[in-house]
């Protein structure tokens, strides 16, 4: 599986922007100069009509520098769920702004720490005279200071459905959440009879969430692989420069073994993540399985390599003077996002008809 010349050019362009612009300031040039938010939006809605492999390239680069930009929550989750509804009117109204990056979206989905459809307890009841009223609370919503498009999963008599809710409407409250990983904002959204607009077919929300969730797992896996690779790069460089007992610590056999093991983990993660991206583009029926594999493999690889980064850097690795702790915290947060590795292995086992252990 190889990337195209255009995708390698995309990687170069994204890395250039992220080198020049740090933190949240990178969002404007990424969207305006690179067209990041438009990558997978169909051309009819103002996008570039790209695929999951383009997202893979972008997310690897975002992972390398732990960028806090809202790409995953807006361009992957929100746009992906919106497209999955097949609601052309809503897509025509909402996707152009998301593609330009002038509007940032959020998908309010998880409840009780779970992204399973079975965990959705928020309710949507028909409002007299038309429309819907939504009540419930949503956790782990990927956050940004100014959310312009808010999609909410809630239950109706027909099952799980997706609704558009105005972020500033009556009965809507956003509660920022303090997380271990300060580079990825999260919020809790509470709905108390908030007015919602149904997207797509009533009761079809579960399917839309599964599709968006698989795409998000594939994208997050690419980010984890990119971050793990950067951890390894920084640790190898440190091992070459740090001298103990009169020689670089990287010359000791025990350190070489640990770095070699980390290299195997990074390469395995890259393969799993790229495999999920290829499945999304070329074999959609295989995406759920490939996404489960990628999220499990990449979560564990990133956690292990980030842990080695801390260990091999010694004392400086746990101080604010070095970025090692930031990668370690991102590894922990990303490992739980959209479900821990054990959850995805259970998904994989169920899909293969095997007992889960």
Give structural notes.
It is built from ten helices and nine strands. Helix 3 crosses helix 6 (205-241), helix 6 (205-241) runs parallel beside helix 8 and helix 7 (253-282) packs antiparallel against helix 8. A hairpin with a 5-residue loop joins strand 2 (123-126) and strand 3 (132-142). It is α+β, with helices and mostly antiparallel strands and 357 residues long. The strands form two sheets. Strands 1, 2, 3, 4, 5, 6 and 7 form a seven-stranded mixed β-sheet that branches. Strands 8-9 form a two-stranded antiparallel ribbon. The mean pLDDT is 95. The chain is globular and about 80 Å long. 51% of the residues lie in helices and 16% in strands.
Q: Radius of gyration over alpha carbons?
A: 21 Å
Distance between the termini: 31 Å
Derived structural class: alpha+beta
* Number of helical stretches of at least 4 residues: 10
The helical percent reads 40-55%
- Approximately how much beta-strand content do the residues carry? 15-25%
Question: What order do the SSEs take from the amino end to the carboxyl end, as H and E?
Answer: HHHHHEEEEEEEHEEHHHH
Please mark out the parts with pLDDT under 50 across 5 or more consecutive residues, or reply none: none
**Mind describing the biggest β-sheet?**
7 strands, mixed
Record field, number of beta strands: 9
Overall outline: globular
In round numbers, the mean pLDDT is: 95
């Amino acid at each position: 599986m190889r990337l195209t010349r255009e995708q390698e050019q995309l990687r170069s362009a994204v890395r250039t922007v992220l080198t020049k612009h740090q933190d949240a300031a990178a969002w404007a040039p990424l969207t305006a100069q690179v067209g990041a938010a438009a990558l997978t939006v169909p051309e009819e809605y103002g996008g570039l009509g790209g695929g999951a492999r383009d997202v893979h390239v972008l997310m690897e680069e975002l992972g390398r520098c732990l960028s806090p930009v809202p790409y995953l929550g807006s361009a992957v989750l929100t746009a992906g769920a919106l497209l999955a509804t097949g609601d052309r009117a809503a897509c025509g109204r909402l996707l152009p702004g998301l593609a330009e990056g002038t509007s940032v979206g959020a998908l309010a989905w998880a409840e009780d720490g779970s992204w399973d459809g079975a965990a959705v307890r928020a309710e949507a009841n028909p409002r007299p005279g038309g429309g819907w009223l939504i009540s419930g609370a949503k956790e782990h919503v990927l956050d940004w200071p100014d959310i312009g498009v808010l999609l909410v999963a809630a239950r109706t008599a027909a099952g799980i459905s997706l609704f558009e809710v105005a972020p500033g409407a009556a009965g809507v409250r956003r509660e920022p959440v303090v997380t271990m990983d300060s580079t990825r904002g999260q919020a809790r959204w509470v709905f108390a009879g908030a007015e919602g607009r149904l997207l797509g077919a009533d009761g079809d929300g579960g399917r839309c969430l599964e599709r968006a969730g698989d795409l998000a797992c594939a994208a997050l896996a690419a980010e984890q692989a990119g971050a793990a690779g950067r951890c390894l790069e920084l640790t190898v460089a440190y091992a070459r420069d740090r001298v103990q007992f009169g020689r670089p610590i990287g010359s000791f056999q025990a350190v070489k073994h640990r770095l070699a093991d980390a290299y195997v983990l990074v390469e395995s993660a890259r393969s799993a993540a790229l495999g999920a991206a290829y499945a999304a583009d070329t074999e959609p029926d295989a995406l759920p399985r490939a996404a489960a594999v990628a999220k499990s493999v990449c979560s564990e690889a990133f956690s292990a390599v980030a842990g080695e980064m801390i260990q091999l850097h010694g004392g400086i690795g746990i101080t604010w003077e070095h970025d090692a702790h930031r990668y370690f915290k991102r590894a922990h947060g990303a490992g739980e996002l959209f479900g821990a590795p054990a959850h995805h292995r259970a998904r994989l086992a169920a899909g293969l008809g095997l007992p889960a252990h």
